[in-house]
Design a protein that fits this description.
Blueprint (H helix, E strand, L loop, with lengths): L9 H9 L11 H8 L12 H12 L2 E6 L4 E9 L3 E5 L6 E4 L3 E6 L4
Antiparallel strand pairs: 1-2, 1-5, 2-3, 3-4
């Protein structure tokens, strides 16, 4: 005679243990069931704060920077302030300029030239 081994789902047991006596645990919604079945990594955080750290470091040191725009134009100056969408660059040879981050290709320290 063959016997079939039946193993209970460990997640269901934990839910029953966590629920107070007499009250059954609510049925999991679709997202919870999908998360339980897959062993995917959680989504990365929206921000690692590395960008903010870099900008603050350059602002405090008043480092001369070169900002290269998408069209190839080079803007030289010091970063005065920033927010989520733009940088304000203080230039000695011209007026201060506000640059949208989506227009910036890359930036580097002027001393690295």
């Amino acid at each position: 005679m063959n016997r079939k081994l039946v193993r209970p789902n460990l997640a269901q047991i934990k839910e029953k243990m966590a629920a107070p006596r007499g009250v059954s645990a609510p049925a999991p919604d679709r997202a919870e069931r999908a998360d339980r079945g897959s062993r995917r990594r959680p989504a990365p955080p929206d921000s690692t704060h590395a960008e903010a750290f870099y900008y603050l470091k350059q602002m405090n040191a008043e480092t001369p920077m070169v900002v290269v725009l998408d069209d190839g134009e080079h803007i030289r100056g010091r970063i005065e302030w920033y927010d989520r969408g733009c940088l304000k660059v203080h230039r000695d040879d011209g007026p201060n300029i506000l640059l949208f981050k989506h227009c910036i290709r890359y930036l580097y320290k002027q001393e690295d030239e």
